[in-house]
């Protein structure tokens, strides 16, 4: 059976000392750091980040149980919450005093639920009675309140990417109030209400912190609400409801993801996909909110793929204790000790691992039968290029060979993305050329994502090998190439010469010259010098190629020299001469070349005519019929004299 | 020519058409075989005494040589005599040039054309020269003036060759009939085919275009062309029985999966025989009874031009004409399905070994009908756009015929739309004859050349040959001189043929 696990844990997890009675473990979503605090910090705090740079180890005094611990952005200042009233700060900036300083929350009788860093020196306290936004002055070891807002808070969530804090308010907890922070300012965004499946009576806190998550998907901030299945409502299973939270304007319920099952769930966002883990079945589902479902109401989504578990993971035994012969231990997936953080983090505190969840694209290829949908799905993924190319190869041969309409759909989808990129690139270049005077700085250079599959990718990875295949009918090969060219043309993309070469090669190999002729006749293979030369080379096997080539050179209108060469090589000296005269190149052309060719024909009259023609040219240009030494025609002058005598030479006209 | 008013003009007409094989008569080596061609030569010399004697002796043997004779009602002996005459001429002239036997024989009243398409099989067409009947006064019988020089060998030679090609398209070679059923079958086939075909020959309207036997291509932009490609490929993929496809629009070719020579004759058949026969229903009004049945199938306008007229008819027969095209190993026999939607026609060719069923036809109709309808309207739209871009076509000062030997592309602004019966030209036959003469001159040499003729009637006729292309222009410019005409033609080449390489 083909590999079906389309989710996996990162190969190199962040390892930390697992949680125990003496070791408390904290995770900071903003810096993605794990804090292992031993004995309140007295015996050491080990901070492990996603890379070595963000890993630190230090000691601090044990001043009571640590409730929350986070570095400001850039590891500048450490904030530790030990009581429900205050937060302590320690400078980590070199040359600054290291002694701790403390800030109590301003609101009387409020207890601090937690805090979030929004920059290297700005911090927000969230209390049960509101929020307080401070600026920290590490040199002065003090804080300044920038802004505060009182509001009853049940719990809060923080999205570090967008610096948005979401507060749960009201008794039921289902009215959510977001605040956005940026450069010392705090913006109150529009509040919104989550529709609860059942309204409890009497009212009590119903919306749990665990059922809400915030994440950016396709560059937009969403609040995800895990709506559990209720027995009273006639829904077949739980749903994830997405609320789109724009920077300005009202929050709107925008997508509903159908889970079709019930139980305990956890959410992750990986590569703009919403991953829903289901604990009891130990499987995960993925959703793509950009995939349109034809058979569903707008914005209701079914899982993209059937539910599968995360790829089995074995914990590598590392460190000095590791014995090479000892096999790695399988890790229990979907363990109840797992904590899931946004966007893509899974932490097993009991084992001391932090993994990033990753999507593996190759298995999706076999799970998603509809190739058009598969392409839509793949084109939005980060590391999609090779997978897409392999799908292309797959639909062209082998058991999963697609029909031409399928091939066409896939090509069209690829080229749509390719075209959008080219257009963006073009308008960027145009904007740059028009100069920065018109505020061109606003335009960013378009990013070339992996989804941009250009002609050279297709040629190298798919088409050139495909046309070599002996077990595929040439009919299908040509049809596929034409379909690709059609798709490029449809998207107004200039077709590269090597694709035409591939078409020609395939046609020639199968003796389909008449087909080639027709393609050229309708300019399906666009004119170019290389193509014209290729055609010339075919003349011996297919004589009409000569005419096709000349026509093409003529249309290019920049290939007059080539035309002359072709005609001369065919000993059509007079034709060449008349042609160069008709395009006005007669004055600059090399007389020697023509005389050589004329002499080669052995036709004396022809030689005479050509010779006299150039003498006349010389007369007209320089007032003298003789050739310049630089033209190297002495040999021909001698030959002319020998044939026709001295007196046949044109004499300089006397004025 | 005041008296000319009462002259009666007679256009060239077909006198007889016959096919024979001299080896089917008394063979060499048989007792009287040695006499064979000498006998005929005597005929030629009109030594009647001997002939009578010999014919009575040999008639039984001689008759065997004749495979087809039109008109059939001619008396047997005359048939034998005429065949013998041709045989004699061919043999006689062969002594002078063994590789190139005579192609035609000019006489005062008629002209005979000889063609040997397969070894020892000869097709002969006898055409009566055009003539003018001048009534005489005083009740004397009117005098007839034969115009011996009006007919062009190239034109009618081409007509004979076309006759054979057409026969071959539907029946395969003579040799094939011989192999499968002997002389009897061949005679039967020839009878069946030529009886009808000869009636469709319109010798009076044959001209240069018959010499070219070209194909008119439909001008089309790249994108629409690629869509058609895509359509053809998809149909061939889903209906894998289809071996070749040809696509036409407005009776002009867009795509041919067949080889050039096969397409050339098939194109001739489609445009001069099949399409004209079916064009009437489309032109007929909505409520006309001629209009094809479209009820029940409002999704598309597709219909079969060959095979079943109505798929719904429970009695419908799923028989299609069979054609023969060249294949790597000789010939292959194919069913010819011609399917049309609006102005777009697709020809699908399927190996004759396959029995075509109702299911297949329904499948084809269901698949091709809607797509072809859509494509037809796409092409039409694109065509109108292109025409609008290129500007309204002004009535040009000149008329031309263009032909490219390489792809058989022909274009004529001289000829009106071909109909089933006649091919109308917009210029005087005299001018057409000049074109034909120039063409003969071109055929003689390989080199590029240009011929400019001043016709009797103020017209200038220019013929140009560049590489494999020929262009004939008729200019109506009174008082123009040679230089001006030359300039005019240059201008024409620069505007009308700017995307091909034409030597000046």
From TrEMBL, chain A:
Any one annotated GO CC term: lysosomal membrane
Higher taxonomy: Eukaryota, Metazoa, Chordata, Craniata, Vertebrata
Ranges where the Mic1 domain occurs: 381-628
The name this protein goes by in its record: Regulator of MON1-CCZ1
Domain Regulator of MON1-CCZ1 complex N-terminal: 25-143
Family annotation (Pfam families): RMC1_C (PF07035), RMC1_N (PF21029)
One record GO biological process: regulation of autophagy
Highest taxon above the source species: Eukaryota
InterPro entries: RMC1, RMC1_C, RMC1_N
Species for this entry: Poecilia formosa
TrEMBL record, chain B:
Stated name of the protein: CCZ1 homolog, vacuolar protein trafficking and biogenesis associated
CCZ1/INTU/HPS4 third Longin domain boundaries: 394-492
Sequence ranges assigned to domain CCZ1/INTU second Longin in this UniProt record: 242-367
Domain of life: Eukaryota
Positions of transmembrane segments: none
Gene Ontology terms: cellular component: Mon1-Ccz1 complex
GO BP: any one term: vesicle-mediated transport
């Amino acid at each position: 059976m083909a590999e079906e696990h389309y989710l996996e844990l990162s190969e190199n997890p962040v390892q930390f000392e697992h949680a125990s009675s003496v070791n408390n473990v904290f995770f900071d979503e903003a810096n993605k750091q794990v804090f292992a605090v031993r004995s309140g910090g007295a015996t050491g705090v080990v901070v492990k980040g996603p890379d070595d740079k963000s890993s630190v180890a230090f000691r601090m005094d044990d001043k009571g149980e640590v409730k929350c611990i986070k570095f400001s952005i850039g590891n500048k200042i450490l904030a530790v919450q030990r009581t429900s009233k205050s937060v302590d700060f320690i400078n980590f900036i070199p040359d600054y005093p290291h002694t701790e300083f403390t800030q109590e929350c301003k609101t009387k009788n409020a207890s601090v639920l937690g805090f979030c860093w929004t920059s290297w020196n700005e911090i927000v306290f969230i209390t049960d009675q509101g929020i307080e936004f401070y600026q920290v002055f590490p040199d002065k070891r003090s804080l300044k309140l920038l802004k505060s807002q009182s509001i009853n808070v049940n719990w809060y969530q923080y999205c570090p990417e967008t610096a948005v804090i979401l507060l749960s308010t009201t008794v039921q907890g289902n009215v959510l109030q977001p605040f956005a922070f940026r450069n010392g300012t705090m913006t109150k965004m529009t509040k919104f209400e989550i529709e609860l499946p059942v309204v409890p009576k009497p009212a009590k806190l119903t919306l749990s912190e665990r059922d809400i998550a915030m994440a950016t998907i396709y560059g937009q901030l969403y609040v995800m609400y895990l709506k559990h299945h209720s027995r009273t409502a006639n829904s077949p299973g739980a749903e994830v409801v997405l609320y789109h939270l724009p920077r300005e304007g009202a929050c709107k319920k925008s997508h509903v993801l159908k889970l079709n099952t019930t139980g305990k769930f956890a959410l992750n966002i990986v590569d703009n996909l919403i991953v829903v883990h289901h604990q009891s079945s130990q499987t995960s589902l993925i959703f793509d909110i950009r995939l349109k479902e034809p058979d569903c109401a707008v914005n209701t989504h079914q899982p993209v793929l059937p539910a599968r578990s995360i790829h089995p993971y074995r914990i590598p035994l590392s460190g000095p204790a590791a014995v090479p012969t000892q096999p790695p231990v399988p890790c229990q997936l979907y363990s109840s000790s797992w904590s899931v953080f946004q966007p893509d983090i899974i932490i097993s505190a009991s084992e001391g691992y932090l993994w990033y969840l990753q999507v593996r694209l190759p298995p999706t290829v076999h799970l998603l039968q509809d190739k058009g949908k598969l392409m839509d799905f793949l084109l939005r993924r980060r590391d999609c290029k090779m997978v897409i190319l392999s799908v292309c190869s797959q639909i062209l041969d082998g058991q999963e060979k697609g029909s031409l309409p399928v091939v066409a759909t896939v090509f069209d989808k690829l080229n749509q993305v390719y075209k959008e990129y080219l257009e963006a690139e073009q308008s960027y270049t145009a904007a740059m050329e028009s100069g920065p005077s018109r505020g061109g700085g606003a335009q960013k250079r378009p990013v070339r994502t992996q989804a941009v599959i250009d002609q050279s990718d297709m040629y190298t990875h798919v088409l050139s090998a495909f046309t070599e295949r002996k077990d595929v009918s040439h009919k299908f090969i040509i049809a596929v190439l034409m379909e690709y060219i059609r798709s490029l043309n449809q998207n107004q993309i200039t077709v590269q010469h090597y694709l035409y070469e591939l078409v020609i090669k395939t046609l020639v190999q199968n003796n389909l010259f008449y087909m080639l002729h027709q393609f050229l006749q309708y300019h399906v293979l666009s004119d170019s010098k290389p193509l014209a030369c290729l055609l010339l080379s075919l003349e011996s096997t297919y004589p009409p190629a000569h005419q096709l080539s000349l026509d093409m050179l003529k249309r290019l209108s920049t290939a007059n020299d080539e035309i002359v060469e072709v005609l001369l090589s065919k000993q059509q000296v007079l034709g060449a001469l008349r042609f160069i005269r008709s395009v006005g190149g007669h004055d600059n052309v090399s007389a020697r070349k023509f005389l050589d060719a004329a002499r080669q024909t052995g036709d004396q009259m022809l030689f005479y005519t050509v010779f006299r023609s150039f003498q006349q040219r010389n007369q007209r240009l320089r007032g003298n019929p003789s050739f310049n030494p630089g033209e190297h025609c002495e040999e021909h002058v001698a030959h002319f004299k020998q044939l026709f005598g001295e007196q046949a030479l044109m004499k300089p006209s006397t004025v | 020519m005041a008296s000319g008013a009462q002259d009666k003009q007679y256009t060239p007409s077909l006198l007889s058409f016959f096919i024979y094989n001299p080896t089917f008569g008394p063979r060499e080596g048989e007792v009287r075989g040695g006499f064979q061609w000498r006998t005929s030569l005597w005929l030629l010399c009109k030594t009647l005494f001997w002939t009578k004697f010999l014919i009575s002796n040999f008639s039984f043997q001689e008759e065997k040589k004749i495979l087809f004779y039109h008109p059939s009602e001619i008396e047997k002996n005359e048939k034998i005599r005429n065949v013998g005459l041709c045989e004699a001429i061919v043999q006689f002239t062969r002594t002078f040039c063994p590789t190139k036997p005579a192609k035609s024989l000019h006489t005062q009243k008629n002209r005979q054309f000889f063609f040997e398409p397969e070894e020892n099989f000869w097709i002969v067409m006898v055409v009566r020269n055009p003539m003018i009947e001048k009534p005489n006064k005083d009740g004397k019988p009117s005098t007839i003036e034969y115009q011996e020089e009006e007919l062009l060998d190239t034109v009618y030679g081409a007509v004979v060759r076309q006759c054979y090609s057409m026969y071959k398209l539907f029946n395969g070679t003579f040799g094939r009939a011989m192999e499968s059923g002997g002389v009897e079958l061949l005679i039967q086939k020839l009878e069946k085919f030529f009886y009808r075909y000869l009636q469709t020959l319109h010798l009076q309207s044959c001209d240069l275009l018959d010499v070219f036997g070209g194909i008119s291509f439909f001008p089309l932009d790249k994108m629409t062309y690629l869509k058609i490609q895509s359509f053809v490929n998809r149909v061939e993929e889903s209906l894998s029985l289809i071996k070749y496809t040809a696509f036409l629009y407005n009776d002009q070719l867009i795509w041919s999966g067949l080889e050039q020579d096969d397409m050339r004759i098939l194109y001739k058949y489609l445009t001069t025989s099949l399409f004209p026969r079916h064009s009437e229903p489309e032109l007929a009004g909505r409520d006309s009874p001629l209009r094809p049945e479209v009820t029940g199938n409002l999704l598309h306008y597709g219909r079969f031009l060959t095979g079943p007229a109505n798929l719904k008819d429970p009695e419908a027969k799923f028989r299609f004409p069979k054609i023969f095209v060249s294949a790597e190993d000789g010939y292959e026999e194919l069913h010819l399905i011609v399917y049309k939607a609006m102005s777009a026609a697709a020809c699908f060719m399927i190996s004759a070994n396959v029995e075509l069923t109702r299911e297949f036809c329904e499948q084809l109709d269901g698949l091709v009908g809607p797509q072809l309808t859509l494509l037809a309207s796409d092409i039409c739209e694109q065509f109108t756009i292109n025409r609008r871009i290129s500007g309204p076509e002004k009535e040009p000062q000149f008329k031309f015929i263009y032909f490219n030997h390489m792809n058989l592309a022909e274009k004529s602004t001289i000829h009106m739309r071909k109909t089933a019966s006649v091919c109308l030209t917009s210029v005087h036959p005299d001018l057409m004859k000049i074109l034909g003469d120039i063409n003969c001159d071109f055929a003689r040499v390989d080199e590029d050349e240009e011929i400019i003729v001043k016709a009797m009637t103020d017209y200038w006729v220019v013929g140009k040959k560049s590489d494999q292309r020929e262009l004939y222009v008729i200019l109506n410019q009174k008082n123009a001189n040679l230089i001006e005409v030359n300039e005019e033609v240059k201008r024409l080449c620069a505007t009308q043929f700017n995307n091909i390489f034409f030597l000046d």
